[in-house]
Specification:
This protein is of the alpha/beta class. It has a single domain, classed as Alpha/beta knot, CATH 3.40.1280. Helix content is about 35%, strand content about 20%. It has 6 helices and 7 strands, in the order βαβααβαββαββα. Strands 3-2-1-6-4-7-5 form a 7-stranded parallel sheet. Strand 1, helix 1 and strand 2 form a beta-alpha-beta unit. The protein is globular.
Length: about 170
């Protein structure tokens, strides 16, 4: 299995760090940062701002930021289109949407539908995945909720989704 995890418009540096740590722990092949997601060691920032972001991300990443293959996308639409051409299924982690492509993460047919090359897209903490990306998404997955809350923190949801998507993988 090849797994890319796309962090699109994630606001919190702490969520970014926690997701990086989770991705490293699961052996994710590539983490893609897009939109306004904060980047570790972003050379486009003034040194004092870069240092501030680095410290915040590193606080929860605990070194994972140095171990992962991280790509900063300048145009996520072009990247997603290219990955689709390479045989990747574009999977959006979402909840509370009405879409015929929506599947429960624990659906027994999901693994067969998505195959072995996956780009998992995570969206902004409150609003979710930018709806402009919907046309490029092959399948949406949602985590079944049993409590009264309607969603998990994006970093927690990422861990649940990666675990479920890779649990039959022999990594």
């Amino acid at each position: 299995m090849i797994l890319k995890v796309v962090l699109h418009n994630i606001r919190s540096t702490y969520n970014v760090g926690a997701i990086l740590r989770t991705c490293e722990g699961f052996g994710v092949d590539e983490v893609v940062l897009s939109g306004y997601t904060p980047r570790y060691d972003d050379k486009s920032l003034l040194p004092h701002l870069r240092d501030k972001l680095n410290k915040q991300i590193a606080k929860t990443a605990l070194g994972a930021e140095e171990l992962l293959n991280i790509y900063s996308s300048g145009d996520i639409f072009t990247d997603l289109t290219e990955w689709k051409k390479q045989g990747f299924k574009i999977v959006g982690l979402e909840n509370n949407i009405q879409d015929v492509r929506l599947k429960r993460l624990n659906d027994s047919s999901l693994k067969d539908e998505i195959g072995e090359k996956i780009a998992l897209i995570l969206g902004e903490e409150v609003e979710g995945i930018n709806s402009k990306l919907y046309k490029l998404i092959d399948i949406f997955v949602e985590i079944p909720m049993r409590g009264k809350k309607e969603s998990f923190n994006v970093s927690v949801a990422t861990g649940i989704a990666i675990y479920e998507l890779t649990k039959k993988d022999s990594r």
